[in-house]
């Protein structure tokens, strides 16, 4: 059945290289259930000691200063991306700031806090602990230009274009495609429902085509996946999904949601040949109580290697699940994809080479052209 399925699906996608254009939603980001965004050899960079005063030190340096509990509107700014730096402009004319001595800017590699002193009260103009990417904090320059406070922040990576000052769903959706370079994304994990919900959000955000192997299989077999498993067994379904993945491996700009459970190809170590054609994201549910323990759990799974899912490029740990969290999880996937692709800028090109050589199963140590997989 798998062979005939592959033939049937060979022409099932029209214009696979066309990007699906989806309007970008403007729904505010809710609290995230994510415990961890991690990868095998990738961890969040440790923060270097900041040369700038912390917010608490700033407070101590301002006599009789009070802190405003309500920050001003954080979208009241202008942002521009240059080659080596980004520029941020905030309107302060209406606040009555008298001099630069009333402005307090605290930065480190990944965070930014801007406050101004007005009538003895410190007002927060902007606060984020997640800049879009790292900056060289010691080279930060700020000054007042008429009614605007201007900050120039030096980028660590001059080649990366910043859509916005902060890492958010909107900025990641715009910024990540430049790093993926058309490479598809495969969502794997124990739950088909979660895989599909996250794949849909992710695809809509970055303008990729969402595809669900469950739908392709059911369309071909004219029965549900559960019925197929009951009638022919999990091995038959896994083999058929492998045929689907082979058909999809040459397509670009897709987000593919795979089957969860033991009947899914991703749960079987010998079915990963074509999954390596894209960036694989493992959505792993966890009972860890905090991010540190979730990270330890993920590392144990990776080192143990008993789960086929540990072959994934990225692991995203979920502390719980509700359909309303799909976008939050998708944002976590984008953030992890950003870290992954920035840590190895040749990775997308390597995926493309792997596809061109026929997805022979030699990932990540790609053999020369003419290599025979049967030779080991």
Automatic annotation (TrEMBL):
CS domain boundaries:
72-166
Write out the entry's keywords from A to Z. Kinase, Transferase
Give a GO molecular function annotation for the protein: kinase activity
Q: Does the keyword Kinase apply?
A: yes
Query: Sorted alphabetically, which InterPro entries does this protein's record hold?
Result: CS_dom, HSP20-like_chaperone, P-loop_NTPase, Shikimate/glucono_kinase
Q: Which residues cross the membrane?
A: none
**A Gene Ontology term for the protein's cellular component:** cytosol
| Signal peptide start-end | none
**What family is it from?**
Belongs to the shikimate kinase family.
What name appears for this protein in its UniProt entry? Answer: Probable inactive shikimate kinase like 2, chloroplastic
Q: Which organism is it from?
A: Ananas comosus (Pineapple)
Q: Taxonomic lineage of this organism?
A: Eukaryota, Viridiplantae, Streptophyta, Embryophyta, Tracheophyta
